[in-house]
Each structure stands twice: as structure tokens, then as C-alpha cells.
Amino acid sequence: MIFRNSRDRYGNFVVALHWLMLVLLAAVYASMELCGFAPKGSELRANMKSLHFLLGLSVLALVAVRLCVRWVAGAAPAIEPPMGRWPALMARLMHAALYALMIAAALLGWLALSTAAKPVTLFGFALPMLTSANEALAHPLKDLHEALATAGYALIGLHAAAALLHHYVVHDNTLVRMLPRRGSR
């Protein structure tokens, strides 16, 4: 089944969700970074911000899907050769931090927009405001959202660096378990 993990690899759907999340997160970051090149008050800038909001909320939705699929997929494939206790703990903490980042950044962005009384839409549907307007709270929430986004660069970079370290230095199957399967030749 495409959802189930095997003993040595993640299921196809789990792998697809992982790499889709990477593309989605890259688009979230790119939309906001590129927004800075558009003149303030321009339609392009407004569209880039809207795209950022849409993508950020899409991350939140995809995290929910990933967590459900992770539960259905079963145990993660074993790392061969096995990691020690401390590296395994660090890996679990990194994954928890990444999930917390994706959830908290999206919710803080939505909350910051709500407190600034800015409408939030997802695929054309207006989402409910999470709270009433509160200009005094809007700016600190936006600052916290941006601080988490900055921390996200470091977390994502560390995650990628760890995968490469496992593959090229430790020589275990950590990275290979998450790569898409190659077609038979």
C-alpha cells in the first residue's frame, strides 16, 4: 500500500508529502522574500502577500494531513546501521521542532492578520478571524511570526545538513529511506 512504510523505506505517499512540503515551504519563503522587491502599495506586492498567506495556510493544512498519514503509515523504517541514543533523541527533537515551527508560524500569521483586522482567505473562502481586532497585539504577533520564520531557515538547513551528513559521512540509510523510488530498469 502506498501509505504504509516498509521495513527499509517510507511509503510512497509519505515520501511525496515530505517533498511536497519542501516545495511548499520554499514557495512560502520565496513569496515573502520576493514581496520586498515590489513597491509598497502596488498590486504586485498585495498579490505576493496574498500568495504568502495562501501558501502558509496550505502548510498548516498539509501538516495535518502529514500527521494523519504518519499515524496510518506505521513505524518509521529502521535506520541501518542504527543510531546511538543521543543522535536518535536529537533527530526526534528536530522533527518535533519542524512540526512545531510549521504549525506555530502559520497560526501566528493567521492570528496576526486577525488582530490587524485583515481578512484571511484560503482558495477564495474567507476564513474566520481567530480574534477580534487589536492593533496593540497585531505588531508583536507579526514580529513573533517573522522571528519563527527566521528560525525556520536554520531548522530547515540543519535538517537538510543532517540528512546529507548521514548519507555522506555516517553512511547509513537515513536519506535513502525518504528518497523517491526509482523505476525498474
Report on this structure.
- With 185 residues, the chain is mainly α.
- It has one domain: Fumarate Reductase Cytochrome B subunit, CATH 1.20.950.
- It has helices at 12-35, 43-73, 85-115, 135-170, and strands at residues 120-122, 125-127.
- The protein has a two-stranded antiparallel ribbon.
- The two termini are 22 Å apart.
- The relative contact order is 0.14.
- The mean pLDDT is 92.
- The chain crosses the membrane at residues 12-32, 52-73, 93-113, 150-169.
- It is a multi-pass membrane protein.
- Pfam families: Ni_hydr_CYTB.
Helix content: 55-70%
Tell me the CATH architecture.
Up-down Bundle
Note the gap between the termini: 22 Å
Written as H for each helix and E for each strand, in order along the chain, the element string is: HHHEEH
Overall shape: it is: elongated
User: Which class do the helix and strand fractions yield?
Assistant: mainly alpha
Integer-rounded radius of gyration: 19 Å
In short:
This protein has four helices and two strands, in the order H-H-H-E-E-H.
List the helices and strands and how they pair.
Layout: H1 12-35, H2 43-73, H3 85-115, E1 120-122, E2 125-127, H4 135-170
Antiparallel strand pairs: 1-2
Main attributes of the structure:
elongated, 2 strands, two-stranded antiparallel sheet, cell membrane, 66% helix, transmembrane, Fumarate Reductase Cytochrome B subunit, mainly alpha, 185 residues, metal-binding
